[in-house]
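C-alpha cells please, single chain.
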Amino acid sequence: MIKGSNVSLGALSENVGSVLVSLGWGSPTGEGDADVSVLLLDENGKVGSDADFYFYNNPVAADGSVQLLGKTPTADGNEDRISFDLTAVPADVERIVVAASRYGEARFGELEDVRLTLADAAGEELLHFAIDDAGSVSAVIFGELYRRAQEWKFRAVGQGYDTGLAGLATDFGVDIDDDAAEVEAQARESAEADDQQDAPDGTDQQTPTLDPTPTPTLDPTPTPAPASTPIPPPPAEPETDGRPAPPRPPESVAVPPAAVPAPRRPEDDAGQKKPPARPRTAKKKVTLPKVVKKTLAENDSWRAARLFPVSSLKSDRDREMRATSVLLSVMAQVPEFGRRLTAAFGAPAGRMETFTEVTLPHGDTPRRPDGVIRVERAGKLWTALVETKTNGNALKSEQVQAYMDIAARRGYEAVITLSNDVALEGSPLVDVKIDRRRKHKVGLWHLSWAEVAHQAQMLIRHEGVGNAAHAWLLQELLHYLQHDNSGCHGFQNMGPAWVPVRNGIDDETLCQGDARALEVVESWERLIRQVCLGLGGELGQKVLPVQRAKRGTDPDARRTALADRLCTDGRLRAELRIEGTPGVLAVTADLRTGKLRTSIEVPAPEQGYPLSWAKRLVRHLADAPADLHVETLVEGETPGPRGTLERLRPEPADLLPKDGATRITGFRLSLLKSMGSSRGNAETGFIRSVDDAVHRFYTTVVLHLDRPGPRRGPSKEGTPAG
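Here you go.
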C-alpha cells in the first residue's frame, strides 16, 4: 500500500475476525527501538476514556479486543506485534489508530525499513505499508482500522508527530500524568553532588551519562501542537482497494470540527468526586521477586506437596500426556494466561475449553492429537489442534501434516506445535505442504516450552493476574515446567553436528560450506533466543537478540555467512539488548580455547572529568567479581589502558591514558569462564554454561551499572552527506 490508500479487509481474506498487525524497523547499529501504542476512537475522533489508550503500561484490553504482544526478533531488527479481535471491539468505537513512538531525542529518521504488515487469523500476510519519509519526528501514526458499512477497513496513514507519545495521546483526548521530569531532576541533582566531590578543582560539573537516572520516558514534555494536522475520519467513498484515493472536490477539503483535537470537555468529568487515574508515559519500575518465606519443614529432605507431581513420570509418552494436560488445564482456568498464549495465533478473547487425547477420523486410521483448544465468542468457535513433544524429542513431519489436513477438512483454524525447540525465522521445524486450492486456511504455529515458562513468569512475577488462585496455579505450572523430570526444559541439545564441528575446529579440518557448521549456527541462535526468554522472564524487561545484518538480508544467507565465519575463526557470537542497560551485552564462545566471554561497552559521559568517570565506575562495581576485565576505549587504533578490577580498585586513575590528551569514548567490561564441552544441558554441558555465564554477568556486573540517559540522535557533523 501507499500513503493515503485504503482497502477492505474482507476483500483480502475471509478470516479477518482477528488480525495481527506488526510494526517493524531496522537500525544500522542494531540499537534503534520504538514503542507501539493503540487508541480506540469514537465518532468524534476521541478516546471514550483513558482506558482506550493501550501502550506498554496498559497492554491488554479487558474484553480482549486489543493485546500488545511485544517484540519478536527478525533478520534485520525486530517487529512489535499487536493482536486485534475485531469481533470484540465495542460498538461505539469507530476507528483504531496504530502508532509508535521513540523517546528522548531519538527520531524515526534514524531507523531503516519502517513498515507495517497486517496478517489474518491464519497468519497469512494481507498487506504491507512502508514509511519512507518519517524524518525527524518522534511519533508516527502508521495506519488505522475503521468501520464502514458493517465491515472493517484499513487506511495507510504514515503521519508524523514531533511531540512523542504524550503529545499524540493528548491530541486524541487522553489525560497524561507524567511526573518523570521531576524525578529525573532529583536524580541529576544527586549525581551532580557526586561529580562535584570527584572533580579535581571542586567545581560543580554537569551530570555524566553514567550517572543514575530513572527509567527512560517516552516524552515527559507537555504537548505542543503536532507536526501535522491530526488525521480526520476516513472519507466516505470511494474505496480504492489499496490504490491512492482520487482527488476530492475543493469543498470537501476542510477538516470536520469533530476531528480537530480539543481539550477534554469539563462535563466529561462532572459529578466525579475522585478523578480516575491517568495513564503514565513513564515506564513502570519493576523489581525482582521477593525472597521465598521460610519453610515450616522439619528438615531439608521434606518436599512441599505440589498440584502437578512429576515423580511418577517414567517414559516420554507419560511426559507428553502430563505436560499437555497440565498446560491446557491452566490455560482454560487462567484467562490472562490462555489469552496471552493464543492471541498471536488469531484466537479471539472468549470462553476457552481445552481437551486432551481427542480421537479424530483420518482415512482408515483415526488420529489422536495431544490436545484441542476451543474458544467461543459470540456464538462462533475458534479451534486449534495441539501436537506436543517433550524431553528434546523432535516433531514428526508426517504427524503435523496429518493434523493440518484434518484441521482443513473440519474447518479448524490452527495447528499448534509445542516442543523444547525454538523456532527460527526462515527455518521451519517441520516441512508441511499446504494445499493452496483449499478455501479454508489453517495456520501452523509453534510454541517452545521456554516461551510458555516466560509468559507464566511475566504474569506472576511482574504484571499480575486476576486473583490469588490464578497466581498459585501459574506458580504450580512454572514449578512443573522447571522440574528436571518434566521434560519441558526448553532447548537442551546442540545437535549431532556439535562434536564434529568442535573437533574440526581443533584440528583445523573444518571447511567453509560445511553443512554441519550451519547446523551449529542455527542451534546457537536457538540457544540465545531461549536465554533471552529466561532472563526477560526473571527481570520483567524486554531482552532481545540483536541481529546486525544488512537491510533485506535473507535469514538463510545471514546464517550461511555466520557459519563460514565460524569455520575461519572458531567463534560463535551473539548480542543481547536488555531494556534499561547502558549498552549491548555481547556473548562470544571461542571453540578453539574453550572460553566464554561476556562483555558490555559503557559509553563515556558527555561531560565531567575522566578521573570522575573512572572512580564512579569502580565504585559502582564494588560487588563485581575481582577478575572482571576493565578496558578503556579511546579514539584511534591504539588500545587504551586495561586491567582487572582487583588491581584497579585501589588505583582507578590507572584507567586513564598516560598522555592525558587521548579522548576516552567508553569502557569495556568483560568476564571469562570455561565453557561446557558436551552438547547437552548437563552440569558440564555447553548450553548450561552459556546460560550461567549470561546470568552471572548480568547480576554481578550489568545490574550495578548506571541506567542510560535519554537517547540522542546523531549530530549534524556525524551525518554522512547525501
